[in-house]
Specification:
126 residues, mainly beta, 7-stranded mixed β-sheet, 4-stranded antiparallel β-sheet
């Protein structure tokens, strides 16, 4: 059993930066994938980025590529999502999740992830 805690959300203005952190507790394996999704009211969760727990392969959605970076923060043992040049359309609840399967390539499908955090709110005001 793995539990996830997200942190780092908040209220910022357009163009600002935020860094979200996902802290897993429980036994983690290097082949696990940690993903970030976001959700706005009335809509499904949308894939943002993913990385293997060991910090290797990454996958980033086209909609945020160039502004968002996912990486393993070895000092904190977290998976961080650095978000730069934030836009009002980035406003959402951000969730991290874990896929326990050893895949050739990270999946972007919400239903392929096994464990979820409770989410952290990001609000970008214009």
């Amino acid at each position: 059993q793995v539990q996830l805690v997200e942190s780092g959300g908040g209220l910022v203005q357009t163009g600002a930066s935020l860094r979200l952190s996902c802290a897993p507790s429980g036994e983690m394996y290097s082949t696990y994938t940690v993903g970030w999704f976001r959700q706005t009211p009335g809509k499904e969760r949308v894939f943002i980025a993913a990385i293997t727990w060991r910090g290797g392969r990454t996958k980033v959605a086209d909609s945020v590529r160039g502004r968002f970076t996912i990486f393993r923060n070895n000092a904190k043992s977290t998976i961080d999502l650095q978000m730069n040049n934030l836009e009002a359309t980035d406003t959402a609840v951000y969730y991290c999740a874990i896929d326990i399967r050893d895949r050739v390539q990270q999946t972007t499908a919400e239903d392929e992830y096994d464990y979820w955090g409770q989410g952290t709110q990001v609000t970008v005001s214009s």
